[in-house]
């Protein structure tokens, strides 16, 4: 295939695909619930959420573009091949068959279909639904060259039409005024910070690194071969898709805050969405909700299983892409049937550890032209980030772990000695210190290299 210039339509399709890959069930339910939690303080909470839910995923796409990477492995490569491989496995495991991919099936079933099925048939219903769901995800991603068409041209437009219909109803017939709504205790003084941490749940900063390989592969199939051209297309598509996603987040958060005018605070965003849609459309609304949730979950599942298979095939080529695809689809099916509550309970602590590490590597990649991807800078920042992140992970585990003797001891030390620990951001200051020390080490190394070069020239 010859190198060709992509048309505006091509850019729209790539952007649509990228948006659809990012926008899963969590992207619907978490901002909606955030609006309910924040109430009148919805705006500062939204700003915090947009940093981790939009800005960081955009930076992760730009990190792939700036470093000319083809996947998450390349992002960790400055720290050595062993670290890069471990980081790749951790990222793909978390957003893949251990937590993220199974959640796409369990959320779509719990929110969209479970209300229509008698309680005694729920377990069997989830088994059947998740089998069909991951079977479709496998079939729609088995041909890599058709992922753009299947997701960007088919599934995403249908999803957007349904979501636009829900927004039209919500804003043309509002249930209340956000400024008049109650604010939960945590959001009275910490709306911005709590919104920031809620953005972790989308997993999008991690997904952005993993989807890099899918986006790059798709652009190559469209006729782009030059690395600079691929990087430019990736960056443009990322800016467009994440900007659009940010607008949808704001609308969802605002809608969640308005819903308090009629409903009490719900246990989660899935229940809130169900209440809102049923309020406007009744029984018909449940069918629309089931379709909406299933579509958005399926598009994300396609991206996740494809990215997993592509990255693992690239690094373990003896096993084919289709085999890796089948393995991650089957593993996701098994994990999904453990139930949504178990998936969320055990994914949170892992995210509290991985997110700071991913944020550090994303920012290092974006800023890497300033220090030529010097491993010294990477090592300082990562070490200074990982240690406090371990404390956050321990604190977020279910009580069987967090309330153990070790968990209590770590919590006491964390609260006493690590700044911003009460906000779950105790990794931030050490990471900045590591950045300063790393850049200082880079400057000293460059200066020593220059001195050696000058000395050799003088001797000559």
From TrEMBL:
Molecular functions (GO terms): L-isoleucine transmembrane transporter activity; L-leucine transmembrane transporter activity; L-valine transmembrane transporter activity
Cell location: Cell membrane
Task: Tell me the Gene Ontology biological-process terms attached to this UniProt entry.
Answer: isoleucine transport; L-leucine transport
Checking InterPro entries in the record gives: Brnchd-chn_aa_trnsp_Livcs (IPR004685)
Q: Has UniProt tagged this entry with the keyword Membrane?
A: yes
UniProt keyword annotations, A-Z: Amino-acid transport, Cell membrane, Membrane, Transmembrane, Transmembrane helix, Transport
User: How does the UniProt record describe the way this protein sits in the membrane?
Assistant: Multi-pass membrane protein
Tell me where it mainly resides. membrane
Q: What's a single GO CC term here? A: plasma membrane
Q: Where are the transmembrane segments?
A: 12-30, 42-67, 79-99, 119-142, 154-171, 205-223, 235-260, 280-309, 321-340, 346-364, 376-397, 427-444
Q: Does the keyword Ligase apply?
A: no
Q: What family is it from?
A: Belongs to the branched chain amino acid transporter family.
Functional description taken from the UniProt entry: Component of the transport system for branched-chain amino acids.
Task: Kindly provide the name given to this protein in its UniProt entry.
Answer: Branched-chain amino acid transport system carrier protein
**From what organism does this protein derive?**
Pediococcus cellicola
């Amino acid at each position: 295939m010859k190198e060709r210039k992509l048309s505006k339509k091509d850019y729209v399709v790539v952007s649509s695909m990228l948006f659809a890959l990012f926008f899963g069930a969590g992207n619907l339910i978490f901002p909606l619930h955030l609006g309910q939690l924040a109430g009148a303080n919805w705006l500062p909470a939204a700003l915090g959420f947009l940093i981790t839910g939009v800005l960081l995923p955009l930076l992760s796409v730009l990190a792939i573009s700036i470093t000319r990477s083809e996947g998450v492995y390349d992002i960790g490569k400055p720290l050595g091949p062993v670290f890069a491989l471990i980081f790749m496995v951790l990222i793909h495991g978390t957003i893949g068959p251990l937590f993220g991919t199974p959640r796409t099936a369990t959320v779509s079933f719990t929110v969209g279909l479970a209300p229509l099925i008698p309680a005694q048939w729920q377990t069997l219903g989830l088994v059947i639904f998740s089998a069909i769901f991951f079977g479709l995800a496998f079939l729609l991603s088995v041909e890599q060259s058709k992922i753009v068409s299947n997701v960007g041209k088919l599934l995403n437009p249908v999803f957007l039409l349904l979501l636009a219909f829900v927004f039209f109803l919500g804003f043309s017939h509002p249930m209340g005024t956000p400024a008049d709504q109650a604010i939960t205790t945590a959001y009275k003084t910490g709306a911005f910070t709590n919104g920031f941490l809620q953005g972790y749940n989308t997993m999008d900063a991690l997904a952005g690194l993993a989807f890099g390989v899918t986006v790059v592969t798709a652009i190559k199939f469209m006729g782009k071969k030059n690395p600079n051209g691929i990087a430019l297309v990736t960056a443009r598509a990322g800016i467009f898709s994440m900007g659009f996603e940010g607008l949808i987040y704001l609308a969802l958060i605002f809608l969640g805050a308005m819903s308090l005018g009629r409903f009490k605070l719900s246990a989660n965003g899935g229940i809130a969405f169900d209440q809102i849609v049923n309020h406007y459309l009744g029984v018909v609304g449940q069918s629309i909700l089931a379709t909406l949730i299933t579509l958005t979950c399926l598009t994300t599942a396609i991206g996740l299983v494809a990215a997993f298979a592509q990255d693992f095939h690239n690094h373990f080529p003896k096993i084919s892409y289709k085999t890796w695809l089948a393995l991650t689809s089957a593993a996701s099916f098994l994990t999904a049937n453990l139930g949504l509550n178990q998936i969320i309970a055990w994914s949170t602590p892992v995210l509290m550890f991985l997110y700071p590490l991913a944020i550090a590597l994303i920012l290092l990649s974006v800023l890497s032209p300033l220090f030529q991807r010097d491993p010294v800078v990477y090592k300082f920042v990562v070490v200074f980030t990982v240690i406090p992140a371990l404390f956050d992970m321990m604190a977020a585990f279910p009580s069987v772990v967090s309330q153990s003797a070790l968990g209590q001891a770590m919590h006491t030390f964390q609260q006493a000695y690590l700044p911003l620990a009460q906000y779950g951001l105790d990794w931030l200051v050490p990471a900045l210190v590591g950045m300063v020390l790393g850049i200082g080490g880079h400057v000293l190394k460059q200066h020593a290299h220059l001195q050696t070069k000058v000395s050799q020239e003088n001797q000559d």
